[in-house]
Every structure is written in C-alpha cells, then in structure tokens.
Amino acid sequence: MSEKRIIRIGLLGFGVVGQGVWKNIERNRSALEYRLGAQLKIEHIVVRDQSKVRGVAVGDIVYSEDPACVVDNPDIDIVCELMGGTGKALELTRRALEQGKIVVTANKALICEHGEELFATARRTGAHYFYEASVAGGIPIIKTIREALVANRFKLIFGILNGTSNYILTRMEREGLSFAETLVDARKLGYVEADEALDLDGIDAAHKAVILAYLAHGKWVRLQDIICEGIRDITGEDIEIAGQLGFKMKLLAVIARDFEANKLSVRLHPALISKKEVIAGVDEVYNGVSVTGDVVGTTILIGRGAGQDATSSSVISDIADAVFMLQGAPNPVISEEDEAVYKELADGLELAHKEMLRGRYYLRIHVKDQQGVLARISDIMSKEHISFATVNQKELEDGTAKLMVTTHESDEASIERAKAVLLLEDSVIGAPVSFRIFDPAKA
Amino acid sequence: MSEKRIIRIGLLGFGVVGQGVWKNIERNRSALEYRLGAQLKIEHIVVRDQSKVRGVAVGDIVYSEDPACVVDNPDIDIVCELMGGTGKALELTRRALEQGKIVVTANKALICEHGEELFATARRTGAHYFYEASVAGGIPIIKTIREALVANRFKLIFGILNGTSNYILTRMEREGLSFAETLVDARKLGYVEADEALDLDGIDAAHKAVILAYLAHGKWVRLQDIICEGIRDITGEDIEIAGQLGFKMKLLAVIARDFEANKLSVRLHPALISKKEVIAGVDEVYNGVSVTGDVVGTTILIGRGAGQDATSSSVISDIADAVFMLQGAPNPVISEEDEAVYKELADGLELAHKEMLRGRYYLRIHVKDQQGVLARISDIMSKEHISFATVNQKELEDGTAKLMVTTHESDEASIERAKAVLLLEDSVIGAPVSFRIFDPAKA
C-alpha cells in the first residue's frame, strides 16, 4: 500500500468533547484511516491552562496556551474549535476561516449568533465550516438534511434538541417528582450546563433550531425574534393531566414552513404531544428529530444528543468529510454556488408572526373555590372565541382549586388576551399558565 | 453565474421507482441543480415495451427498448438500474461497471446475490455502485453507517426492513384480524410484491440484512446460511398474548457482531420485542433501524421503507453524490484502499452458528386437554434445561387447548430439540410453533 497522506489536526480546547475526539480517534484509528485513505495526526492542542492535569494521556502531542500554534499554523489542515462560547471562539474561528482553513465545530451558540458572518467569510476565502456536532450530538441530522434528503423541500422539522431538559421531564413524569427536585439530581449528575438558562430556558435548543432553520431554508433567524420558552413553569400535575389525556410534555423545537404563503415559523417551547407520535416516546437524555420532506415523507432520527462520545462521533464524521475534501472533493456544504442556493431557498421568505400561530392549548388556572368561577372563566374564554375541550378541577387543601383545561383550536393572540383578562380577575390567583398542544399534522 | 455542467442520466426501467425519480427531479429541479452546481438531464429511458402507456408525460426524453442506448452510451454519466430482478439487471449492471460507469440502484436482490462480484468489478475498473435506495427506502441508513458513523464499529444493527409485513402485523394487532384476512387487504392495496415470498417469507428483508452486514462488517453472507423466517405462522393470539406480556410482534433483521469472539450473526425472523423499545413502536408500512456504534451509542432511524417517493428520494440522493463525484470528489463508497478496509473489517470474521443463538422464547403448543399435560410438557422442556417464565392456557371449543408459554433464557438448539420431542408426544396436536424474544441489550 502506498504511503498515505498525513492530515494534521489542531484542537482548540481540550475539555470533554476534545478529549472524546482524541480518545475515539485512537480507539478506532486503524479502521478509520483505512476508510479515509489518510493518516490522522492530532498535531497540536491549545488549552487555557497548560498546567491543568488532563483526563487522558495524549502521548507526544504538543500542548500550548497559544491559539496561533493552531490557527495560524500552515501545517494544520483541520482546526477543531471545541472551546465553546462566543468570545474567543468567534475571534479564532474568524481568523482560521479568513486564512481559508477547514474548521470543524460543536459550538451551536457561535453558529446561531454569528453563523451568517462566518459562513460568508468561508465562502469568500474558500474555507470550510463543518458543524454536525452542533445539533443533536451523535444524530447525523445535518448530513441527513443536507445530503441524504437533498431531493426534498422541508415542510416541517420538529423534535427534542436538549437532553438535559428531556431528562428532567422524563423523571418528573416517571417518578412524579417536582421540577425543583429533579433539577437537584440533574445538577448532581453534571447534566446541567454551568449557565443553567441554556438548558432550562430553552436557549440551547433554540440555538440548534436556528441552525436547522438556516440549513433547511437558507434564512438566518435571530433568537430574539422567535418564541423561546423553557421548562421552568411545568409542574408535576401538568405532566400528570397531560398523560391522562394521552399526551406527553416535551420541550419541542419546531421549524415549519408554509410554502404557499412563504412564511417560516421557528420556535422552541414546551408542548403537549400525542403519545402516538414517535417523538413523544423519546425519553431521558435522548434527542429526536422528525423531518418531513415533500418527496421522502417523514423520517425520524433518534440518538444521544450530548455527551463526550456521541458528540465526538459527529466531530469525527466532520473530520472524515474534511479529509475527503482535502483529497479533492468539492465542499458539500458551501459550494461556489451556495450563496445563490440559499438566496433562492430563502427568496422572499418571511418569519411568521408569533400571533398567527394556531392550535390547541392547555391552561392551568389557580382559582378561589367560589360558586360560578368556572362559568366566569368559561365566559372570559368564549369572548376570545376559545372553547374548552376538557376540564379538570383539583381541590387544594387551602380551599382554592386548580383548573386544568384544554381548548379546541384557537390562536396565540386570543390565548394571550384571555390570559391577560384572567390575570385581572378577582377569582384568579396568580398568573394562568398555558402550554401549546403540538399536532404535527397541523403544524 | 457560469454555465453549469450537464450531467446525463440514463434510466433502465421506468416502473414505479423510475417514474418517481423522473417526477421528483422535475419537481424540485431548480433547488436541486443549485445545490449540486450542475444541470441534471434524463437523457434516455430504456423500457421493456415502448408501446406501453406511461403514467407520466416525460417531454422530449428519448425512449427505447435497447439497453445499449444507456449502458454503452459514452454520453451517459449515470446509469440508474431500476428494473429489478437478478437476470437482465445483473448483465446490464456488470456491463456498465465494466465500462467504469457510475451505477445507481434500488435492487436489493441483485446486491445480495451478486454484490461481491459487482463491487469487485467496480473496484477493478474504477466504476462506482451506489445503493442507498436498496435498503429501507427513504431512510438514509447506508449514508449514516458509511459516513455519519464513520468513527464507529457496530456491535448491533437491528430493525424492521419490510413495510408490507409490518403493515400486516400492525393491522392484525390493532384490529384483531387473522393473517389471512389482513393479507387479502394488503394485496388489494398493492402492498404485496408479485412474488409474495419476498414479503411474507422474509426474503426481501433478509436481502437488506445481508447488504447492511456487508456495509458494516465487510463480509458477504449467503442467504442460505442465515436464519430467514417470515410471518406466515403468526396468529392473532400470538400477538395478543405478546401484547399482554408487554411485547410487540415484529419481523426483525438482526446483525450482531461479537468483537471478542469475532463472530457475526445475521438473521431475519419474527420476534417479540419489548414495547419500551422505540423499534417496537414502528408500525404500519414504516421501517426502522437501530444502530449501536461503539462511539455514538444507539442511533435510530425511522421512515418510509418503500413506495415511489421515498425510494426515489434515496435514488436522487445517490445521484447527488454521483454528481459530486463527477465533479472531482473521491468515492466515499469504494476507494482505492477499500478492498483493504473491508479485508481488515472482516478479518477472520466468522458467521456465528445458528445453534449458538441464546435468548428467551415464546412457544405456542396445541394440546389435548388431558390431565397432566402441562406437567408432561414442562418435564420435556426441563430435560432441555428450559424453564417457563409465563404460561397462558386457552381452552378451545373442541375440547383441546392452546398453551402459550414464554421461557427463561435458553438457546436455539435446546428449543429445537424440545420442539422435536413435543412433536412426537401423543398429547400434542400438530407442530409446536416458537418465536424468539429479542432483547437488544443481550443481542
């Protein structure tokens, strides 16, 4: 066999994912190098603090604290940005792409916030920016949408994109625990990110939804323009009542395109979803994405959404594509024509107004247990043309009651108005809480 | 924008899938050509009978009955073999590959039976043979195993690979119908292949299992060397009892590798699988595949396994990869080094003996309703070290009874010996029927 080309890789960051990439390249090195027809060499690792002891012994790889050793090093073929964050990571990614380098990343926040600039830089300089690991960990959702389903236009993409919140919801459901109790456990297990808002307020999953929206529709959506609601308001009784009605409570990302009106809805929020849907059965730390294309129909992918090994599997898949590219393959992500593709894909496409969202809703209203309360509330709702599909009343020990209702089809604006009126109502205690009921057939 | 290269495609066969490819290229032509950076032209269609009226109006495409117009035509860049069968299709595929052409196929029977020769030919001549559409229709299982999960070795791949049998089992379960009744409906809907053994005796799914075994492990397995059992023996009461015990009855393909012993088990048979498994929830005509890699963990893909649109989505995905290749990409399927890869992957790998299969079993035994029958049967089983986990007895109107039992862990050889002894037993009517209970955690 002829001598294989050596592909030199530099890692920026050597935390959980970086160490996973190193470990798993070593683990299956010979099969991997055979398949790629090239040798892989991790040439340099840049860390914040060189003195910190690492979890793996990496042999003769050179460490340093100077990112220039990777980013500006002409010997490095592939830069893996695995440091996270949007500060230093932005500066270094930009610098690598400016020099026409291939960058592989798992950094969803960076792409979500600066993807438009970074992909434009890559196009301009002929660099390449790979990001399979940024969405849904080990699930090959980027490759599937980009390559496998190339024949399709995507009416609906939805799913579970954050493992931590899914773990919390699963335990709340199975063990009847409260959100607070489960959160304590999730923290102990190291499942919750240092910045807890990323997991609990839906921001992490929203980052991923923004990336998928761009990939499928060529449009960059800003986080502040979309519905992004986390799981903090969900109680055990919401999950229980949902279960009795045949639903699971899940934190869902939804990317729905109406091709006729040329509107795109991107959103991230908890939702009740029928137990009959496969995505409803995706529990624990697993992620799941349902993709409906106009040709293929619905395809669903389920797998580990996070963790060292799953994420590094996707990073290595991107490294493999990069190796093929270094051996002469055209870039499947950003071709010369790509800007035009995306312009055409997104031509005239507008973000749908949140208020236009239609569907059924679940509401939890805490009320004084007075005569005529239900009639009064029903009256308020009906003024907004909202009618109840199911009503569930639970007496509390303090003489108050909780009303859990589901509605027939309504819309976002009506529900918000009704909630505002209810808030002012004397018999209502605190703010009513509402969750959407998600029906893929009507999304 | 510069003039794009025209990629000329020839179709062999213009039945359901061929017409789907034509229709769906037309449907999303502009987005597709943008993404590929090339123009797609279906240059020639070879049919068996030119006079036959076609379901689609294909404009100025040239029809003929002479395959040479595609296979031996130097202007044709990509040959799509969508005629099926293993006769003429073999001859034409071989001829195209001999000339170094790119061939895209949906023909699982051909690959299963002649893949070893055809891939060898492709390697020798520098041709390329793409086959995403041959396994699980619109599900990108080939690309996922080959590219997305390139970092992995595959301990277990299992799933539902035949939509027709899954449709029949789903209806039997939901409506309590018999196999015969459901089959009548499936035939009416056109779901059953002309050669019914393909769907009902598991041969179609076994073809696909053989292809996945090669892809994941580099070893060609012969159909006659593996367990291949269809769904004809399944009764409504088997499904009912399975359901009561928390299982679904599914026709499963299993490709399990024991890396330590270097043994490969490839099999296709009905099995009881826990309702908690995602694959158990894959119903109707859907297919689902669960892939466990040593790095990524378990990833599950679900989608339409057959039908014009789903299958043509995969054919078009292969055409897209072929277009990239024609523009200079190295072949991700068969590189120069590929033979070595597969030699290494399969190095010393042996097919596991069927008799070595271990697991739990379900048995249905028709008995005369005499005193002591259960004790007698229990005795026969215990001589083979088989013990019962559950026993269910159902009295029939004619005074006989059916015993439905599940066993604790046993093995194939013991179960077969016990069945042989039971068959000779005076109190047993007809042949006992057994189904395996599949537990992915122990596969």
Question: Would you write up a description of this structure?
Answer:
Two copies of one chain form a homodimer. Chain A has 15 helices and 18 strands. With 443 residues, chain A is α/β, with parallel strands linked by helices. Chain A folds into three domains: 5-137 and 309-345, Rossmann fold, CATH 3.40.50.720; 157-304, Dihydrodipicolinate Reductase, domain 2; 357-438, Alpha-Beta Plaits (2-Layer Sandwich), CATH 3.30.70.260. In chain A, strands 7, 8, 9, 10, 11, 12, 13, 14, 15, 16, 17 and 18 form a twelve-stranded mixed sheet that branches. Chain A has a six-stranded parallel sheet with strand order 3-2-1-4-5-6, sandwiched between helices. In chain A, 52% of the residues are buried. The model of chain A is unreliable at 332-337 (pLDDT under 50). Chains A and B meet through helix 1, helix 2, helix 6, strand 12 and helix 12 of A and helix 1, helix 2, helix 6, strand 12 and helix 12 of B.
Topology:
Two copies of one chain form a homodimer.
Chain A: E1 5-12, H1 16-27, H2 29-36, E2 38-46, E3 62-64, H3 68-71, E4 78-81, H4 88-98, E5 102-105, H5 108-125, E6 128-130, H6 141-148, E7 154-160, H7 163-175, H8 179-188, H9 197-200, H10 203-217, E8 227-228, H11 236-244, E9 247-258, E10 263-274, E11 286-293, E12 297-304, H12 308-326, H13 338-345, E13 350-351, E14 358-368, H14 373-383, E15 388-395, E16 400-407, E17 410-411, H15 412-424, E18 428-438
Parallel strand pairs in A: 1-2, 1-4, 2-3, 4-5, 5-6, 8-10, 10-13, 10-18
Antiparallel strand pairs in A: 7-9, 7-11, 9-10, 11-12, 14-16, 14-17, 14-18, 15-16
